[in-house]
């Protein structure tokens, strides 16, 4: 009995420590974070987002830059991918007010196109 108890007490730390990473594993990265990490981060360090002459000054200009660079790199992202990467960058670096406010829905597809500067101009 004493030997069994000592054996269980000896195993306890390894059981707890072995389960700790599983119980407290990080949430899976968002699609935007995954796309940015695999397609953009090789060239873009965090410095590009903090430079004095950055081109993104609000949500729309940030989204325009994401769209522009995915076109330059011929990534063929969907509008949803562009929105997800924009959201990731905004949450990580910029903290701009998204269309519809913080709690509002971020639009994709035709609704996002309608929000682009000059979209309503004739």
UniProtKB/TrEMBL annotation:
Residues 1-25 form the signal peptide. The keyword Signal applies. InterPro entries: Cyt_c-like_dom_sf. It comes from the Bacteria. Keywords: Signal. One of its GO terms (molecular function) is heme binding. The keyword Zinc does not apply. Coiled coil: none annotated. Transmembrane segments: none annotated. This is Cytochrome c domain-containing protein. The lineage of its organism: Bacteria, Pseudomonadati, Pseudomonadota, Betaproteobacteria, Burkholderiales.
